[in-house]
Amino acid sequence: MPRRARVSLNVLARVRAWFGLRQDQLALFLGVSPSLVQGIESGRRRLTEEVALALLPLLQRVPPDYNAPLEAAAPALALPPDAPGPEAAELDFRRRTCLQQAAGLRQEADKLAAQARATARWAQALPALLTTYPAPAPDDSAETAQRRIWLRGWLPRQARPLPPATSTRWHLLQARITALEAEAAALAALLEPQQPK
């Protein structure tokens, strides 16, 4: 039986999940090594004040709780009354195949939906983040100026909307999932033993 994924209460993991970042991307934003981010998330390293301050602009835009599910539907067909009965093993094999394929497509669709939600969150946070990280000032050190220039280019890229092809792909996946689940439900109805009336 597969184990259910635990939702991490670690602040770095929450920020990453909300904005759809990998550990290496968050490390890049924070200006630290990916191993430090991994160490903090796993509890092997402490969250330093410097990292906490760098994380604060993103953390302030993560709500305390968030989640989102999906659903599907199902139709059915009938054979003429004098047709021979179906082979139950073949019908059940196809039913299980449909459900397996639908589950794989749902995972793909869920990834696209999560990506779109993360992009929308970045777009919402972008104005405040750009205020937090203004353009370099004349009295900034070369390192600070370079970091600000980099951040002001990196942040808008995170907020770029997904291309229309991604939305199209998500809708096509939903159509295929619905069709496969409908087929599986119709096959399950055929496999059900006739109940006495």
UniProtKB/TrEMBL annotation:
<dbReference type="GO" id="GO:0003677">
    <property type="term" value="F:DNA binding"/>
</dbReference>
<dbReference type="InterPro" id="IPR001387">
    <property type="entry name" value="Cro/C1-type_HTH"/>
</dbReference>
<dbReference type="Pfam" id="PF01381">
    <property type="entry name" value="HTH_3"/>
</dbReference>
<dbReference type="InterPro" id="IPR010982">
    <property type="entry name" value="Lambda_DNA-bd_dom_sf"/>
</dbReference>
<feature type="domain" description="HTH cro/C1-type">
    <location>
        <begin position="20"/>
        <end position="67"/>
    </location>
</feature>
<protein>
    <submittedName>
        <fullName>Helix-turn-helix transcriptional regulator</fullName>
    </submittedName>
</protein>
